[in-house]
Every structure is written in structure tokens, then in C-alpha cells.
Write a sequence for this structure.
């Protein structure tokens, strides 16, 4: 089955710096790659997603890149702010209601 | 947007008892419901997948007789933790899709504590 590896497990940056989180997936049939932000005790919140027919997607300070050949995708957050501090998860699925498999998570800390 | 209501948000039960968690899709029909378990500082681990009107498919290592899943309608799925033990204490969360590839809608989660 699908396996998603995420790195790093923790990431500390200074306010205003960029943060990059990387994920690799094992199933080449996966075609939907969302990123979630989760605060303690809350549900995951979708922050951006990308489908396999595009290589990059951007939404203000957040961008995601996808390399289908290498089976990896990355989250880029620019101009980080303290409120970006949270746990971020990548995930992968085959779409069309297929099961969503999560990476291990990255605890991002943005220091003022 | 699509909303999944999950109840209860918190529950404390005694060891050996059963607990039922409900997830309702409020404004859409959930073709498929996924159930996850999340231990502190860990990821969301998929437990099972359920489709309306059919038996749930459990992930490897998940005891189907312990975690009973019912998806009797397109708007309601339930997870019953039977004979709960302290090691079952966790954050349980459901996620629904409409099967069109439009993404996943998560419930708010249930914090289960077994004492």
C-alpha cells in the first residue's frame, strides 16, 4: 500500500525566513497531494493541495511543488510568521475518494 | 462548504465498556468515510474505510471486532470501540468524501480517555 515519508520532524525558523517540508510517496498511482496544518486537539486544516497534472501551485505565502518522476512533493512557506507555528502533514491519495495516507508530520516553530 | 459533525468531542469511559463515536455529513452525502486514530505527537493513522451499505475495510493490524464501524446511510457513520482499554485512549477523527475527487472533509475529532 501507499507509504508517505515526511521530513524533517521538527523545524525551527526565525520570523520572516522560509520553511520547506519535504515528502516522498511510494505508490506511483497516487495523484492527489494535500497539505494540512493541525493545531493541538483540532482537526487538520487543508492549506494547499496539488494534483498530479501540475508541477507547482502557489497561494500567497504558500507553495507546493511536485516531482512525479521522483515521487516527492514539498511545501514552501515564505515570510513565516509566529502564527504559522503548528504541525504540518503531507498526504497522498489516488483521488476519487481513495484513502488518504498521511506523512509523519513536521512540527514547525517560528520564533519572533 | 462541506461539514462533518463529529460527536462526542470528548469522552471518558471505564475500562471494559464500549464507546460510540458518530460522524454526520451535514450538507452532502458522504460516499466514503475514513476513520483515523492519532496518538499524541504522532500522525493520523488510517484505521478503516467504510462505504455506505457495505462492510468496512480495515487496515492491517486494526482489530475489526474491537473497532466496529457502521455506515448505514450516506450521512451517518459510527465507530464503536468495544471493551475499551487504556491503550485505546487516543484522538479519533473521521473524514468523508463524496467520491468525486473534491477532497476530504474532516470531523472535529473525539478525544477518548479510558480509565
Amino acid at each position: 500500500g501507499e507509504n508517505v515519508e515526511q521530513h524533517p520532524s521538527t523545524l525551527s525558523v526565525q520570523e520572516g525566513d522560509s520553511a520547506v517540508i519535504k515528502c516522498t510517496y511510494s505508490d506511483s498511482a497516487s495523484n492527489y497531494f494535500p497539505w494540512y496544518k493541525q493545531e493541538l486537539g483540532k482537526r487538520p486544516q487543508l492549506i494547499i493541495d496539488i494534483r498530479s497534472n501540475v508541477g507547482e501551485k502557489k497561494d500567497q505565502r504558500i507553495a507546493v511543488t511536485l516531482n512525479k518522476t521522483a515521487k516527492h512533493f514539498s511545501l514552501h512557506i515564505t515570510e513565516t510568521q509566529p502564527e504559522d507555528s503548528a504541525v504540518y502533514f503531507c498526504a497522498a491519495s489516488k483521488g476519487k475518494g481513495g484513502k488518504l495516507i498521511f506523512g509523519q508530520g513536521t512540527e514547525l516553530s517560528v520564533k519572533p | 462548504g462541506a461539514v462533518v459533525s463529529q460527536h462526542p468531542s470528548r469522552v471518558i469511559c471505564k475500562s471494559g465498556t464500549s464507546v460510540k463515536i458518530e460522524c454526520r455529513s451535514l450538507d452532502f452525502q458522504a460516499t466514503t468515510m475514513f476513520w483515523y486514530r492519532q496518538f499524541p505527537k504522532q500522525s493520523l493513522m488510517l484505521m478503516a474505510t467504510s462505504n455506505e451499505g457495505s462492510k468496512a475495510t480495515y487496515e492491517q493490524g486494526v482489530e475489526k471486532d474491537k473497532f466496529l464501524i457502521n455506515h448505514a446511510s450516506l450521512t451517518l457513520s459510527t465507530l464503536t470501540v468495544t471493551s475499551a482499554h487504556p491503550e485505546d485512549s487516543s484522538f479519533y477523527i473521521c473524514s468523508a468524501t463524496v467520491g468525486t475527487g473534491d477532497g476530504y472533509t474532516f470531523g472535529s475529532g473525539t478525544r477518548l480517555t479510558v480509565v
